[in-house]
Specification:
This protein is mainly α. It contains 6 helices and no strands. The protein is elongated and about 110 Å long.
Length: 135
């Protein structure tokens, strides 16, 4: 038995156009126009001035320099409150803990003082045996 030939569906250009219009509308709903841009201080490279371009005013340079300094500052210096939950842990750490709370210092116990004396004695006896004339 022979297979029946498949029906050829004629292309409907009106439906194709409607699908395209619908796709474009969906994309436009998701688009956001950004007009404010920040300088990335990690990739910022100063460029020498060109002879046919006017130099920016010092006020503009000051504003740009302030933005760069603000971007490089610690979060507490330029934010009023922590933005993430991870920042909350150490936000007020300088107020809560005294300066030397976690500094233990170097102390001597009985064992360390004994071993220090032992090594001093050992180095002195080695120095005297090394300096003695050999026969």
């Amino acid at each position: 038995m022979a297979a029946k030939p498949a029906e050829v569906v004629e292309r409907n250009y009106t439906h194709d156009n409607e699908r395209l219009v619908e796709t474009i509308r969906k994309e436009e709903r998701q688009q956001k126009l950004y007009t404010t841009f920040a300088v990335n201080p990690n990739t910022f490279k100063p460029i020498t001035g060109k002879p046919n371009v006017a130099q920016p005013s010092s006020a503009d340079c000051d504003v740009a320099l302030d933005k760069i300094k603000r971007a490089n500052a610690v979060p507490k210096a330029h934010l009023a409150f922590p933005m993430t939950s991870a920042q909350e842990y150490g936000w007020d750490a300088d107020k809560a803990l005294p300066k030397g709370m976690f500094h233990a210092g170097r102390g001597m116990s009985e064992i360390t003082s004994y071993m220090e004396e032992y090594f001093k004695h050992k180095s002195q006896t080695q120095a005297t045996t090394d300096s003695a004339p050999k026969k």
